[in-house]
Amino acid sequence: MSDVAFYDFVREPFLKLALWVFFLGIAYRFFRVLFLGIPHDYAKPKGNPYYMAVKKIVIKPTMGWTFREIFARRAINFIGGFMFHIGFIGLTFLVPAHALLWREITGLPIPMMPNIVSDMLAYSAFGSLLVLTVHRALNPVLKLLTGKDEYFANLLIGLILFTGLLATKWAGSGYIWILSIHIFLADLLIIYIPFSRLSHFVYYFLSVGFMGWNAGKRGVSF
Amino acid sequence: MPVLSKEEIEKFYEFCKKSINTEVASYLEACVRCGICAEACLFYMGVNVSGRIDPSLTPAYKADLLREIYKENYTLFGKLKKLLGFGVRISPEDLREQVKLVFYTCTNCDRCTKACPMGIDTPKLVSIVRGALTHAGLTPKDLANATNLSIEKGSPLGVDIPTFLQRLEFISEEYEVEVPINKKPSDYLYLPSSIELMKFPSSVAAAVKVLNRTGINWTMSTVAHEATNFGLFAQSKEVTREMLRRVLEGAKELGVSYIITPECGHAYQSMRFIAPNIFPKDWTFEVLNIVEFIDRMIDKGRISIKRKVLKERTTLHDSCQIGRRGGVLRESRRILKMLAEDFQDSVLIPEHNICCGGGGGVLVIGEADQYRQKAFISKMTLFDKVEAKTVVCYCANCMLALTKGNQELGRDYRFVSIVELVAEAMEGEE
Amino acid sequence: MESLYNVFKRRGYTRRDFLKSALLIASTIGMGPSFLPQVVKALESKPKPQVLWLSFQSCLGCTQSILNSTSIVPADVLSEYISLEYHETLMFSHRSKEAMDLQKGRYVLVLEGSLPVDGGFYCTGGGRSAEEILKSLMDGAGLILALGSCASWGGIAHAEPNPTKAVAVDEILKHKRVVKLPGCPPVGDVIVSVIASFVVTGKPPEVDGEGRPRVFYGQTIHDRCYRRPFYDAGKFVGSFEGEDAQRGYCLYRMGCKGPITRNACATVRWNGGLSFPIQSGHPCFGCSEADFWDRGFIYRPLSVVEEGFSWKEALAGALIGTALGYGTAYINKKLGGG
Q1: C330, C332, C334, C335: best mutation site toward chain B, by most B Cβ within 10 Å?
Q2: Contact C260 A7 (CB under 8 A)
Q3: Which parts of chain C are beta strand (E)?
Q4: Domain B304-426: which CATH class?
Q5: Domain that holds residue A160
Q6: pLDDT tens digits for B148-175?
């Protein structure tokens, strides 16, 4: 199979399949949980649960930082995790080639970032992913909590970041192969997300929403 | 521990299966295995101090069995796996481990929720596992005894109505206060907790003094004479309901519109947030914690704090169920600032405060003592951080746990009740 | 047989002109200035190549392309130098081997257009099918050039629905080394320099796995594009009119297939190094890669789903997912009793 034939395969039928699986699977997982329903809460709330739910969804990623002693002990998780997520989300949506795909899918004018920014994000995301993976393998708590799922996801994302970097900078004459492998792995990731813990980004809204709702119900601000 | 039969494991399984709703499922699904919750857990921290890291104390791990059960009943792949015979196999050892995880080393303090990047309410999940264990008859013996006692005699410490009256008589004589009992009609019903009655009578007396000083129309009841609710610790719906029913009956009989809960964490929790869901029609009362109540009264000018009674460096210990999970955090700080000359908060944000280690019934469980003592170490770090020897509490259970830990570890902290301080500060010159 | 230098002299060009061409040939075939003496010597002494040019299912664009090649060797010199012993289009098509006095192992066989494998219905000449003609000539060739995308990959004739069952020439020449010069058409200067390099070195150029000379097809248009800095800076042309297009921003958004297209357009350029599609403001549509015509979507970015995946598809997927999720939740609620 020539590289362009492979490229055409991963870009057209496989990407399309991946996107179908992704949207279907993510909606399925989200609504499978949402439609389970919760019992009505008759206790009069002390604050405003709806406001707090929205507020927490917006500010939750920074909340853990106020726990200084936890931050000090798990700085790798906090800083690495933050860098990774910023990098991953930024790269997924704002790299020109990706942004054009998302524009097509969403119809929104998604901005495109210059290469220098995406390079920085990619290096930081890749580096922090490496560090986080090593940390995961060494920390006793994480050793207990981690399954194969996490390592596979880390490997997949690491390879995607690596091949993406390679394709933009260092590929040389193997450019189309590297690019195709990058897209192929990305397709795999898109398919893999609904089947794994990587779908936590949809549950974030539910879980943090409930947490904020509870905070509003109890009248605490944090 | 009794020998476990298959039936009991089945009961545990079924209970877990039935307890899943959107909220629980989203918590179970959302966990990303980051393990940050471990660093927020006082038991993990405490055990860690000794250098022996026990990763199984991680809050996220406590819900893992529940997660497995959820997965094989609510997800496609889990069901498939179960069909193919790779389902969850629960051994008696697993359940014993669960007892350790949820009864011995969790106080439902909610601190991990605040640290969790996904906002997972681990106490909620732990409560389900507790409920399932109770359903399977695996409640720790001490806790089960106390729970039974509270059903039989009306109080986990065995305070029945004659003892209750006797203690009140003692208090009114000893501290020279007038205690209204079953006074009709009344606006406010004050419920003492039996821990206070038996172990900290001065605290009850102080509350009575404060209530009398405000000049409101209040009373105590012989029907609703116990604020604590051990049904919550064991997560037994029947016991919770029964205990709350007594409160409801007493309150209804006296026709009150406010219920004042004492310095007791889960009493506030149960009456403020749980009772309305158990009696959605009948529970029409406004439930106030005594701290909340005092703050209101100070606001209205009904009582005034006339002097600062604490001269030394002071810090505050928050009750998780009243504070972090009850929303009474700013009130206690406002009051304490009036009471103490040198008040230093040990945490950046009130919601960060560490639990006493004895909540959620851990205090009464003998087997959990070693963990509770370790937890006290992590609690102490906060006191030492602000170099305070005097710690103000607003929960009798916290006071008891802290005092116990203090004695066991040979420390010299002094724990005082905020209501007592208020009662003291009301007297005297401006 | 006369050499290239002889042709130059006869046509009235100076030795300086000849050396200029020799230098260009040396550099385009990747030999560098230090090899110039050797190249000059070879072009002075070696006889001009015999070229057999067979047209199959083609549009003659490739012929046009080589005739318009002017930057390496002047046109009149070129047409005399590359002795087209036989060209289907330029000469009378009698298709007879006897007309040719070929030196075995020395001649260059240039194949233009794709081959129909329908059993001798299309593209026949002198009563023989294209396949037969090709097979009769292939053994003696020193260099077989598959010229253009049709000969290299099947090209336009091979595109859907492919009525003639056209295939690339190397499908027929299974065990032969075929040097492919894909492109629609390929750059004329590339053809000239590949033939010249055969004259100089006596062997086919170094090729990649697909049979393309590495010198010209080793890099993508994207890699050598003069608009690449705009790609890196995230500056894109959004429409063919307007300021961004005039500023010469990257054409990726307009559907440029440069990133997956290997050709010499961006380096050698066309019309004597004057310009190439991207320079004139049009996106590359990847003519030198296999099945470029079937890829379609010329004016849509490379990274989108070819047949389209808009919010409608996303929503449809999400709705199906929602329905399934609702169903599962409903069943679970019934089963779980919660």
Answers
A1: C332
A2: yes
A3: 50-55, 83-87, 107-112, 115-116, 124-125, 128-129, 141-147, 166-167, 178-181
A4: alpha beta
A5: 3-218
A6: 888 888 888 888 888 899 999 999 998 8
